[in-house]
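Students often ask why inverse folding is considered easier than folding. One informal answer: many sequences map to the same fold, so there is more than one right answer. In these notes we will look at a single instance of the problem. The structure comes first.
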């Protein structure tokens, strides 16, 4: 592929940390989704139900649809998607959870690199930095 051909494709990376505040609600919604999936073979349905009842991360994976993230965005079509979920030990104060700040440099959309302050995680003036919500 030439540069012109490959430049039509964009990889969008999104990392979320979710708190499961209602595990019964999550599991119930995933079971309902599995039961209403007309394309899922019966033997796979039994396996899916067992996995969802055992693991909240599996329940979440059955409810997340990457297509819905870009559905309705003008001028784009989903070419490929993959996703996974896992239960984790989460410490919001840990440097490990500074999303998007893997090293001492942060690359801008335009390809320039900017220094990132080790203490605050802030980039160059006027730039947005990852934040927790």
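Output (designed amino acids):
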């Amino acid at each position: 592929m030439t540069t012109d051909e490959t430049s039509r494709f964009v990889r969008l990376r999104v990392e979320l940390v979710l708190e499961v505040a209602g595990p019964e609600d999550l599991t119930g919604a995933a079971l309902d989704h599995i039961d209403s999936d007309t394309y899922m073979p019966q033997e796979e349905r039994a396996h899916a139900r067992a996995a969802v009842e055992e693991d909240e991360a599996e329940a979440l994976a059955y409810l997340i649809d990457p297509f819905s993230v870009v559905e309705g965005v003008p001028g784009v079509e989903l070419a490929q998607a993959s996703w996974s979920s896992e239960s984790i030990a989460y410490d919001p104060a840990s440097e490990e959870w500074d999303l998007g700040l893997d090293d001492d440099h942060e690359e801008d959309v335009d390809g320039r690199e900017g220094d990132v302050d080790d203490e605050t995680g802030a980039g160059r003036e006027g730039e947005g930095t990852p934040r927790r919500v």
